Amino acid sequence: MDSTSKTSFGTLSKAFTKILCLRSNSTISGDVALHKPNFSENPDELTGDHQNDIEVLLANLFAGVSAVKAAYAELQLAHAPYDLHVIHFADRAVVTQLKRLSELKQGFLNRAQLKQSSSRAQAQVQEQRNLLKTYKMITAKLEYELRSKESEISSLQSELRVSEKQCRALEVRLRPGRTLAALDDLHLSGLNPAHFLTLLRSTVKSIRSFVKIMVREMKSAGWDLSAAAGVIQPYLRRQRNSNHNIFAFQSYVSQIMFSNFQRQDFGLGGPVRDRHSFFAEFTELKFFKQKKCFERKSQFGKFCRGKYLGLVHPKMEASFFGNIAQRKLVSSGRESPETDFFEGFAEMARRVWLLHCLFFSFKEEDKGVIFQARRGSRFSDLYMESVAEEEEEAYQGGLDCRPEVGFTVLPGFRVGRTVIQCRVYLVYIDRR
């Protein structure tokens, strides 16, 4: 501890020695100069106003120290960004202020006339000015660092967008039809029904993927798939082709997921929104992972929770997983379950929500409509598409069989003048 103090004192002493050897005619302006007192050489004159004189001396000393601090802060600031002219100026200012402090010290040691020195108030004013100058320079430095950080953040965000785009391009190659990369550069001014059709196809694939996961869990739990499909769609009880059971499960899922699709708020309540708001949400949400979307405190989070609880009955979940822990976790809204079943659901829900956002992004003259075919309706290839084409081919030779809609598997849409057919399961009625 003592050695450190001696070293510091020796260094400071050498610095003051160098300062005192400098020329007295400094080039620094005197607007920040200390008031140099003329101390008297007669120490007896200090006896009367000694206390006041000491206070004046200390005030001048503090003013000098604050001036050194301000000059040093300016010297530091000049290095970032580098400014040689300011560095030289600040360096001379530091030396000048240290020299004036030395002169103040020498004047005190020589017992100069304290009464003729500057007033304490003047010194305090000068000290505050120096402090203000220091704070201004510190503020300028912080503002520069803030601008630098903002520039760095902007650069990193740009790199992140490029990386995400490259990742999506790779994902397109790995999983054709399961990404939204085709809509990356979509702008509201260029929106047309073809973009909606692209997203709809992707949404339908996500529905089918989730249904496959659900059927897999049913098989693992020992369900009778034909009986379950017959409960959902009674028409399937007449069919002997077990491969058609999947259409009942698809219709069940799509009926729930597209319920209230035609309403702006998706049946959740909320303020009236315009097409710009919907498209902005579409643009933002399409880059989010499904888990991150679910955890957002938003309408989409409410949508996910409501659809999951409506789609997956407690008894169904208990049959699949032995408990209803997932249901409780989803109901809490704190986080999403880490299971393939829920991840498949969340991705499906995200795409349905994106489709809804894009649906309401069209102009008023191109306003969309969602529709489905009523049971028993006559088949129309303008508005409908059969999901079981092999059955249709088998009955083409039967002139007395008329195709009717058994049930709608997936809804249809009309956007502007473009009609996207609903997918239906047909039954064939013998007219004899």
UniProtKB/TrEMBL annotation:
Domain DUF641: 53-172
Keywords: Coiled coil
Residue span(s) of domain GIL1/IRKI C-terminal: 370-425
Provenance organism: Dendrobium nobile
Protein name per UniProt: DUF641 domain-containing protein
Domain of life: Eukaryota
Coiled coil regions, renumbered to chain: 111-173
Pfam families referenced in this protein's UniProt entry, alphabetically: DUF641 (PF04859), GIL1_IRKI_C (PF24994)
